C-alpha cells in the first residue's frame, strides 16, 4: 500500500504541474507535434493521437511520451 500511495501522490503532483505548463491541443496532437518539430521549436503540448500516428511520429524522430493520466481538458468532457 505504501508504494501505491507514493505512486498516486507523485502522479497527481505531476498532473497538476503538467496541466499548468503545456498547451492542450486535443486530437490535433500529431499535426501540432510535426509543426513544432519542423520549425525546430521546443514547446510543451499534450493531446490525443491514435497508435498509428504515434508510431509515425516516433519513426520520424519526434520525441513524445504517453501520459499516465488523461489530460484534464479531455476527461472533464
Termini separation: 31 Å
The biggest beta sheet, please? 2 strands, parallel
Low-confidence stretches: none
Task: List the strand order in the largest sheet.
Answer: 1-2
Provide an overview of this structure.
The chain is mostly helical and 77 residues long. Helices cover 53% and strands 9% of the residues. It contains four helices and two strands; from the N terminus they run H-E-H-E-H-H. Helix 2 links the parallel strand 1 and strand 2 (45-47). The radius of gyration is 14 Å and the shape is elongated. The N and C termini lie far apart (31 Å).
Can you lay out the helices and strands and say which pair or pack?
Blueprint: H1 2-19, E1 23-26, H2 29-38, E2 45-47, H3 51-59, H4 72-75
Parallel strand pairs: 1-2
Explain briefly what this protein structure is.
This protein has four helices and two strands; from the N terminus they run H-E-H-E-H-H. It has 77 residues and is mostly helical. Helix 2 links the parallel strand 1 and strand 2.
